[in-house]
Backbone:
């Protein structure tokens, strides 16, 4: 499985068809790194209020301005949302004529990322709605774990379920910002 | 029985002990809450410092400022990040002026300080975990005014619970005293009838058997009182009906039988075998015999 996503593929120059894809993946990687920071901060937040605000920030970044739980008080501008952009990317890729091996690897990897992010969103919503700091912290730790799973491991040999970073590696970009 | 002053002292002591216990619990939980807040705040500051170091290393000042600014939406009053004496981020709520940043320290400090308003805040200073280059600091001020309110709320709750427990104990004491009071009332006064261990007090409408109160209804009392007025004399149903149910046209021998049964039961509850003090004389009526004749002696 790891080989399918990028494990045995050495870093090389990205194919010409992948330029737009890589731009999206880099944006997602940076957004997920930012979200993981807010998740971590929410997990150790000193008060219930801090935890709620930080958890809602995670929800905002994941869902985007069009999301049902989006809180405009915690966003200074419209947010595209990682999940909507991911779904848009997956749909666009499905319609494109790509090499079969790439198409399969992208489909497999992005579907896993989508599931992990949906789970992260659920956990963040639980964290934001929790009336108890300790229980909220537990939910935010779960959200953090799902975000990291969506990012995927830096070492492509461990990318059994894909992830954003293994995809970047596959197409010749550094997996860390 | 306890004298009144001892009872009052006991109740006062109970209230005092409960109050002290409640106060101790509340004060201890307040200290625990502060310790937990400090611990979480330090973890919070460390997580920010880690991220800040990464943003500084990547030259991402914009994210540093945005993250610091975002913290102000929560309990942060100010967030400062400095490196080599230069402030890289300085976000603060309007009207808040943080204390001067120490020039250089390698140690984490967390102090509970006063705001000009009198409220408290936690002042945290910790070094930036930068791998290279000049050293840096993170300086955070976290609002702790809720801590005082939380402790006050907890004390109020604890006092409320304590007072509630005291009231319950007092009510229980009063109920116990109320149950004991009739026996006490009989002790100081002269019984109207004394028949061995059986004493009947007309004034207090009280009956005791070997010092133990016998709980009787008014009709049951009147019946026993009648029988006890002439121990050994056989009272017919008609005589009993006339004395116990003087105004009832419907009372009959069945009622007499029923009430004799009930009085026997009540006597037997106080002392097993006391049922035999009321003797049925077939065809004539009922008579009362002294406890010793019924085979009862004082324990």
Residues:
């Amino acid at each position: 499985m790891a080989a399918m996503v990028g494990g045995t593929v050495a870093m090389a120059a990205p194919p010409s068809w992948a330029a737009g894809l890589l731009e999206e993946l880099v944006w997602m990687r940076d957004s997920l790194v930012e979200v993981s920071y807010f998740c971590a901060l929410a997990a150790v937040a000193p008060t219930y209020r801090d935890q709620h605000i930080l958890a809602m920030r995670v929800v905002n970044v994941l869902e985007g301005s069009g999301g049902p739980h989006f809180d405009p008080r915690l966003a200074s501008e419209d947010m595209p949302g990682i999940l909507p952009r991911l779904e848009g990317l997956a749909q666009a890729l499905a319609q494109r004529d790509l090499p079969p091996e790439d198409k399969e690897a992208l489909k497999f990897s992005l579907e896993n990322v989508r599931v992990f992010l949906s789970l992260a969103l659920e956990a963040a919503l639980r964290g934001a709605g929790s009336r108890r700091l300790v229980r909220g912290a537990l939910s935010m730790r779960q959200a953090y774990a799902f975000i990291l799973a969506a990012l995927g491991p830096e070492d492509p040999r461990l990318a059994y379920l894909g992830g954003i970073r293994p995809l970047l590696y596959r197409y010749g970009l550094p997996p860390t910002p | 029985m306890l004298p009144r002053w001892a009872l009052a002292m006991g109740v006062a002591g109970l209230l005092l002990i409960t109050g002290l216990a409640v106060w101790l619990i509340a004060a201890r939980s307040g200290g625990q809450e502060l310790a937990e807040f400090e611990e979480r705040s330090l973890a919070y500051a460390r997580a920010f410092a880690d991220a800040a170091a990464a943003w500084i290393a990547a030259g991402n000042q914009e994210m540093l400022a945005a993250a610091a600014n975002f913290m102000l939406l929560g309990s942060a009053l100010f967030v400062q990040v400095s490196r080599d004496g230069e402030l890289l981020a300085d976000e603060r709520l309007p009207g808040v002026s943080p204390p001067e940043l120490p020039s250089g320290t390698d140690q984490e400090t967390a102090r509970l300080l006063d705001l000009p308003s009198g409220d408290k805040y936690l002042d945290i200073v910790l070094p930036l975990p930068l791998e290279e280059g000049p050293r840096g600091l993170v300086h955070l001020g976290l609002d702790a005014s809720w801590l005082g309110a939380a402790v006050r709320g907890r004390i109020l709750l604890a006092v409320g619970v304590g007072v509630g427990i005291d009231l319950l104990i007092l009510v229980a004491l009063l109920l116990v005293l109320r149950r004991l009071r009739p026996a006490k009332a009989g002790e100081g006064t002269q019984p109207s009838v004394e028949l061995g261990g059986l004493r009947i007090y007309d004034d207090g409408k009280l009956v005791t058997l070997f010092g133990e109160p016998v709980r009787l209804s008014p009709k049951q009392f009147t019946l026993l009182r009648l029988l006890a007025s002439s121990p050994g004399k056989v009272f017919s149903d008609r005589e009993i009906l006339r004395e116990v149910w003087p105004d009832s046209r419907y009372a009959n021998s069945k009622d007499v039988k029923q009430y004799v049964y009930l009085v026997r039961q009540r006597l037997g509850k106080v002392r097993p075998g006391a049922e035999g003090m009321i003797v049925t004389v077939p065809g004539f009526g009922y008579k009362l015999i002294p406890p010793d004749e019924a085979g009862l002696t004082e324990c």
The first strand of chain B starts at residue 76 and ends at 83. The radius of gyration of chain B is 41 Å. Chain B touches chain A through 21 residues (CB under 8 Å). Residues 1 and 181 of chain B are 10 Å apart (CA to CA).
